[in-house]
Write a structure and sequence with these properties.
Keywords: Hydrolase. With 273 residues, this protein is of the alpha+beta class. The protein is built from five helices and 14 strands. The protein has two domains: 86 residues, Aminopeptidase (3-Layer(aba) Sandwich), CATH 3.40.630; 136 residues, Alpha-Beta Complex (Nucleoside Triphosphate Pyrophosphohydrolase). The protein is 20% helix and 37% strand.
């Protein structure tokens, strides 16, 4: 709910916090911002307000040192703004949530009709041997796993592929910028076969048999494990992890819930036995 409070236009939240968006404020007299905010903070504290958020747009960057002086700290920054926060209760631990601290990566385990695997060699790699790996990359905002997998595969290799299921995922910590990293491997069916790899990112790309890929001495342990996941799936009855669209709590949208389902018949070697 948006309202006026102690000279500011604020938005309240369900946790008894307030957000000040600098785009909603009157900055006709910038020099008055600091004393006005300084006066408002103890009044909000006395009213039981727990957390303050200030969304500072680029045009109002002068607010950053003001907020810093008044005890605010950085929460996160995005293109065009920085968010700063201040926790008000003295007797309670700071409960304001951190900003997003996880990366989401997706790779395509793409098989053609010959059951050959699509692999790439990156142009730039932290591993000196530049091993063959699966095409993939980071999910964009608002992307489902299947969408990311299809996009990354076609961007890097030129191959159109269809999402089938999740083979497995890795969760590691202390990744880029100290964040954690989720890395999902998606089983995919190739819809085209002609490779047209991206020369800016990819040095080489090819189809390879599973056996030849596993025999590569430079294959990472993680990719070796994901291949084994596929082989185990084929050997042990064809169960897989795939999404189902389920209504959200308010019925206004739907979300993917990933659970165990039978593998589609074209990928299930036991189908019809």
């Amino acid at each position: 709910m948006t309202k006026e409070s102690h000279g500011f236009v604020v938005t309240s939240d369900i946790f008894n916090g307030l957000t000040i968006d600098t785009d909603e404020q009157d900055f006709s007299t910038e020099e008055n911002f600091e004393p006005k905010l300084g006066d408002a903070i103890p009044q909000w504290k006395g009213e039981g307000i727990r957390g303050l958020w200030v969304k500072i747009h680029l045009a109002h960057s002068f607010v950053v040192p003001v907020c810093s002086k008044l005890g605010f700290d950085y929460n996160h920054a995005q293109s065009g703004y920085v968010m700063m926060t201040k926790w008000l209760p003295d007797e309670e631990e700071n409960k304001l949530p951190e900003y997003a601290n996880q990366f989401l990566g997706v790779a395509g385990f793409v098989l053609n009709e010959k059951k050959e695997l699509l692999v790439i060699r990156e142009r730039f790699s932290v591993i000196q041997s530049k091993p063959w790996k699966l095409p993939g990359g980071l999910a964009d905002k608002g992307e489902d796993l299947a969408v990311t997998a299809r996009r990354e595969v076609v961007e890097e290799t030129g191959i159109e592929a269809e999402f089938v299921s999740v083979l497995g995922f890795r969760h590691q910590h202390n990744f880029r910028f100290g964040c954690s990293d989720w890395y999902f491997i998606c089983l995919m069916k190739a819809l085209t076969t002609e490779i047209k790899h991206c020369p800016q990112e990819i040095a080489e790309c090819k189809w390879i048999s599973i056996e030849e890929y596993l025999s590569d001495p430079h294959l990472t342990e993680a990719n070796k494990f994901f291949v084994q996941c596929y082989l185990n799936q084929q050997k042990n009855g064809g169960l897989t992890i795939s999404p189902t669209l389920i209504d959200s709590w308010n019925k206004k949208t739907q979300h993917n819930i990933y659970a165990v389902h039978p593998l589609p018949k074209e990928f299930n070697p036991h189908h019809g036995h």
